[in-house]
Amino acid sequence: MIDTTLYRWLRPLLGQRGFASRVPERLRPRGTSSRVSRLAARYDADVDAAIQRLWPKARVYHDREFAQDRADFLLVVRGRGVMVETKVKSDPGLFRGSTLPPLLDRLQRDGRRLVVLLNQGDPTPARELVAAKLGDKARIVVWSGPEHDAELRAAVEELIRIECRHP
Questions:
Q1: Which of 24, 30, 59, 153 is 20 to 30 A from 48 (CA-CA)?
Q2: pTM of the model
Q3: Looking at residue 63, what is its pLDDT?
């Protein structure tokens, strides 16, 4: 019979089995913890490909760590930066934007522009939230593939035309 206390003591030396279940969700690497996280990782890759396709000369910076107050991408087009946040819903219902306030607060202080890309759903409640915090410096676009590239391009180009960086 194995002494469980000895096993718990040796477990860090033998390997990290079960490690992911003990680590809080906010500290786990992206794309490994659930079905939605895997969908989010795939969606981020599709968004990255779309950005490269629509703005081949633009610089794109990726935030590989999960943080609620930082956007997933920084897109720099013609010297102007636009933050891009991706949101994945597993159902086509309403998107209320309940996870956006930390990011919106930070961007409101920094005076940055933001495009929120949603894979599906109705973003009307979230649009109201974003408009209240960032006004005309933010857009929410439902983007699920190349067929929605025109909406993505229009949203980013509108934000690039905004002259003032700070309120």
A1: 24
A2: 0.74
A3: 79
Closest by CA to 142, choosing from 166, 110, 116, is 116
Residue 164 vs residues 75, 112, 115: alpha-carbon distances, Å: 17, 10, 17
| Count of all residues that appear for the chain in the document | 167
Q: pLDDT at position 19, please?
A: 47
What is the C-alpha to C-alpha distance for residues 129 and 28, in angstroms, rounded to an integer?
28
CA distance 144 to 147: 8
**Residue pLDDT, tens place only, 8-60:** 666 666 665 554 445 444 444 544 456 667 888 899 999 999 999 999 999 99
Structure-model confidence comparison of residues 108 and 150, the more confident one:
150
> How far is residue 87's CA from residue 95's CA, in Å, rounded to a whole number?
9
Sheet strand arrangement including 114-118 = 59-62, 73-77, 80-87, 114-118, 138-142
- Tokens coding 37: 């996280």
What is the set of domains in the chain, with CATH numbers? Answer: 30-161 (3.40.1350)
In whole angstroms, what is the distance from residue 118 CA to residue 137 CA?
A: 17
Residue 49 has, within 13 A of its CA and on its CB side, a CA count of: 10
